[in-house]
Design brief:
This protein is 80% helix and 3% strand. It contains 23 helices and four strands. The strands form two sheets. Strands 1-2 form a two-stranded antiparallel ribbon. Strand 3 (481-484) and strand 4 (487-490) form a beta hairpin. Helix 16 (331-362) packs across helix 17 (364-377) and helix 16 (331-362) packs across helix 19 (399-428). The protein is globular and about 65 Å long.
């Protein structure tokens, strides 16, 4: 038996024993009418996320390979998917609930809506990872496949799959983490003035705060969820990330270069960060023609119209009643408040990410401590922290101010990891020659950071900023509106406005109108701010 296999077997046994002991301790010592259902809730949440992942894998793999092999299909579907992934998932979730409940009035409709939410949170990472990896297969390998007359299924099996395997694993890991991120939103749903929940860890965590008003129980469940996620990551994604090094020749030739490290643990972190960085940043650097953008926007508008008509064919009077409501006049103010929260959180997250990213890349002792903590931190579903943070902060600052601080804190916690990941990789990628030159010229401390490190990480900061703002919109929609007991607390903003018309009033037309405004802001910022900044920062790009 190999040493790595023994190590994982020992890790599995220890992890499983600790998991069983923690579940036994919690179920024995915690007093709650639902605590006995904890194993069942775990099973339901895992089943829900696994089902969504399998659907995402099949869809992402199929469409990713098809798009990479068919140029005409790719020119339409890729920019369309790029726009769809920019639309905040929690924005259209109320519409999904309406549609699925209309078709399936029982609990099945709610279950399908939940799986659909998880699916849409997972699928884009897999699709774009597969597509980019397939498009990056070296020309000499493609020529060799042609000379040996390898076509069709044989080409996919012997050439395509080995080449895209790192992207499949990395995309799957990202998708899995995103699934846990949206767990509470998918299982605990306030709709049409009623709270509907599905059995699972997410809904149990939410109810422990909102229904039982038991913060201690919420923290215990959060710790259990975190440990469960870490255990699953250790058994699957970390193991697969190491195994993917067997595809090293293809990776070195075309996908991206991975440095060889002797220590397995160090290599796993290097591989994991490289894969995540590549998939997350590559999709944001994609350039489309004006024709592709117009076509993709038309397709998305058609989808929006079909969604409205699938629920009810609206008359002109219905549209007027739905849109011209008294609160519509406050839309500019709501937009300002939401953008202000995002900006404040972004500035805080950026400052922390730059500091931590440079330290993690430059100081080995700090990296040895911080990377395992990062591994644990990314395993915590950020949205699951929301009820706990709110209750703790509201006791000090009151309901409204507590919710305001909670929303910004949630945004910082959500945004920071995307920027840190990009910055840490960028600092690590500074060529050794440049480091040596800086030593010769006596660049140390702040002088070295100002003249060597900061110029090198500018592109990474911009790419990380795109990702951070993109994920921030989902968090702000979730954080600005909170059903707390019999009371609904909200702070003025686009997120709370969308939640109110969607979850409370069931105003589909107004909801899609607000969602289109949010989506337009996201897309326009990406096209006319971030992509222009990316183009300007190309001169700082370093060859790795």
């Amino acid at each position: 038996m190999k040493k790595s296999t023994k190590r994982y077997l020992v890790g599995f046994i220890i992890g499983l024993v600790l998991l069983i002991l923690s579940y036994t301790y919690v179920m024995t010592n915690v007093k709650n009418p639902e605590i006995g259902n904890l194993p069942y809730y775990t099973f339901r949440s895992l089943l829900r996320i696994t089902t969504a992942y399998i659907l995402s894998l099949v869809f992402g793999l199929s469409f990713g390979i098809l798009a990479s092999m068919n140029k005409r299909f790719s020119s339409i579907i890729t920019p369309t998917f790029d726009i769809l992934q920019s639309i905040p998932i929690l924005g259209y979730f109320p519409v999904a609930i309406m549609i699925f409940i209309a078709i399936f009035p029982s609990a099945i409709g709610l279950e399908l809506a939940s799986i659909f939410l998880l699916f849409t949170s997972m699928v884009w990472a897999i699709f774009f990872g597969v597509f980019d990896a397939a498009k990056s297969i070296p020309v000499n390998i493609l020529d060799a496949a042609k000379s040996f007359n390898i076509k069709g299924f044989q080409f996919i099996r012997h050439v395509m799959i080995p080449a895209i395997m790192p992207a499949i694993i990395s995309g799957s890991f990202l998708a899995w983490c995103d699934g846990w991120f949206f767990m509470i939103a998918a299982e605990y749903i306030s709709y049409a003035g009623q709270v509907r929940s599905l059995p699972g860890l997410g809904s149990f965590l939410a109810k422990s705060t909102y229904v039982y008003n038991d913060v201690n129980l919420s923290i215990i469940i959060l710790i259990v969820v975190t440990f469960l996620v870490i255990f699953i990551n250790y058994l699957t994604w970390h193991r697969l990330t190491e195994k993917v090094s067997s595809y090293m020749p293809l990776i070195k030739l075309g996908f991206f270069t991975i440095p060889h490290d002797k220590k397995i643990k160090k290599r796993r972190f290097t591989l994991q960060f490289k894969f995540r960085h590549h998939i997350l940043s590559k999709s944001k650097r994609r350039i489309y023609t004006s024709y592709q953008r117009i076509i993709s926007i038309i397709i998305v508008i058609i989808i929006f119209i079909l969604v409205i008509f699938s629920i009810k064919v609206p008359t002109l009077e219905d549209i007027k009643k739905s849109i011209f409501i008294p609160e519509i006049s406050k839309l500019p103010i709501y937009t300002f408040f939401t953008l202000s929260r995002l900006t404040i959180a972004y500035i805080i997250a950026l400052a922390i990410a730059i500091f931590m990213g440079i330290l993690a890349a430059e100081k080995k002792k700090f990296a040895m401590i911080f990377y395992p903590l990062y591994d644990i931190g990314q395993a915590i579903p950020v949205l699951a922290l929301f009820p706990i943070l709110f209750v703790c902060l509201s006791q000090t600052f009151g309901g409204r101010l507590g919710l305001e601080i909670t929303a910004i804190t949630m945004l910082v916690l959500d945004m920071i990891w995307y920027m840190f990941l990009n910055i840490a990789i960028a600092v690590k990628s500074i060529p050794e020659e440049m480091r040596e030159v800086s030593k010769i010229f006596g660049f140390k401390g702040m002088k070295r950071i100002k003249h060597i490190i900061l110029p090198a990480i500018v592109p990474a900061i911009v790419t990380g900023s795109i990702l951070a703002w993109g994920t921030g919109w989902n968090t702000i929609i979730f954080s600005e509106y909170m059903p707390y007991g019999k009371e609904v607390l909200s702070i003025p903003g686009l997120g709370s406005f969308l939640d109110k018309v969607g979850y409370e009033e069931g105003n589909t037309i107004m909801l899609i109108f607000i969602l289109s405004i949010i989506s337009s802001i996201v897309i326009l910022m990406e096209w006319f701010v971030w992509r222009k900044l990316l183009k300007k920062t190309e001169k700082y790009e370093l060859e790795t």
